[in-house]
Write a structure and sequence with these properties.
This protein is an alpha/beta fold. It is 48% helix and 12% strand. It has three domains: 1-39, no CATH class; 40-253, P-loop containing nucleotide triphosphate hydrolases (Rossmann fold); 265-327, no CATH class.
Length: 329
């Protein structure tokens, strides 16, 4: 069975198996991703993030239904907390999305965070690539809900939706502003609850954002503040409209190409770092590595010198990787 060909042909069972292969990594996964890569780059990837309990999965489900009404195929990547027993996803999001998962134009994939920081699973990017290649034109990526440090989604998505709700200490979060800086669209969910107007006013007062964790500027785009009640669907069409408008802005301004370049550069560098580290440790050997750790613990060597010795043991020249400032040490 050719999983790649069958998945590209629209066979959902083959897609499910292919996603499992990709999540588990290895040579088979890399070969599959290489074959799929020419078919990618056509989906609108929308990230949905916010604190636990803010209604991310409910909004994701409602957005999926809204985009289906617009005749778009939808893939949903829901990153769930990891089970302490099996190591797999707890599948809470898939349970809450049962109403749309039966739609043949919707594919829901739950992933375990497996201890990864930043709100995403380690292979989220690869899973998004598979769904993109297999024809899903709108891909919703719901993060696990890690809070302020949850900025990896901005490096994965084209459009990032940040959800806030009244009564969850949002004022403090807005003052810190860490997660707000990644927002392309701000949504105050549960807008029918007491305190929603106060959250809206506080957001408007703190919307003068500075810095962008993605490393890519957003020229002339001021993140809009929208109200929604995801449980009833109120305001969901407006959120979908704004996501489409943001995509059009990215394409017309040239920001989409800049984001894509930054995203690919980070992915390429991450793969190189991971492979170089594995190669270095394998060539140096466990005896050298454990010895350096023991010397570090005893304060007999500093981490920079230990890294140099590890590279030399692996047959590499430490000076080749130095920056100009490091070279002057």
């Amino acid at each position: 069975m050719d999983l790649v060909a069958d998945a590209l042909a629209g066979q959902r069972r083959a897609l499910a198996r292919l996603l499992s292969v990709v999540e588990n990594d290895g040579p088979e996964a890399r070969e599959a991703l290489a074959r799929l890569y020419p078919h990618t780059g056509r989906a609108h990837v929308i990230g949905i993030t916010g604190a636990p309990g803010s209604g991310k999965s409910t909004l994701a489900g409602q957005l999926a239904s809204e985009f289906r009404r617009r005749d778009l195929t939808v893939g949903i990547v829901a990153v769930d907390p990891t089970s302490p027993f099996s190591g797999g996803a707890l599948l809470g999001d898939r349970i809450r999305m049962r109403g749309i998962s039966a739609d043949p134009g919707v594919y829901v994939r739950s992933m375990a965070s497996r201890g990864s920081l930043g709100g995403l699973a380690r292979s989220t990017w690869e899973v998004v690539q598979v769904l993109d290649a297999c024809g899903y034109r709108c891909i919703l990526v719901e993060t696990v809900g890690a809070g302020q440090t949850e900025i990896d989604i901005a490096r994965t998505a084209d459009t990032t939706i940040v959800i806030l709700v009244p009564g969850m200490g949002d004022d403090v979060q807005m003052l810190k502003a860490g997660i707000l800086e990644i927002a392309d669209i701000l949504v105050v969910n549960k807008a029918d609850h007491e305190g929603a107007d106060h959250v809206l006013a506080s957001l408007a007062a703190t919307l003068n954002l500075s810095g962008d964790p993605t490393g890519v500027e957003r020229p002339h785009w001021r993140p809009p503040i929208l109200k929604a009640v995801a449980t009833t669907g109120e305001g969901v069409a407006e959120v979908a409209d704004m996501a489409v408008q943001h995509l059009e802005f990215l394409r017309s301004s040239g920001a989409m190409a800049a984001r894509e370049r930054a995203r690919l550069a980070e992915r390429l560098e991450g793969i190189v770092r991971e492979r170089l580290l594995r190669c270095t440790l394998a060539r140096a050997g466990p005896v050298v590595y454990e010895g350096l750790l023991a010397r570090l613990a005893a304060r007999d060597v500093d981490p920079y010198r230990a890294a140099d010795e590890l590279l030399v043991a692996a047959g590499l020249r430490p000076e080749d990787g130095m920056t100009r400032a490091e070279g002057g040490r």
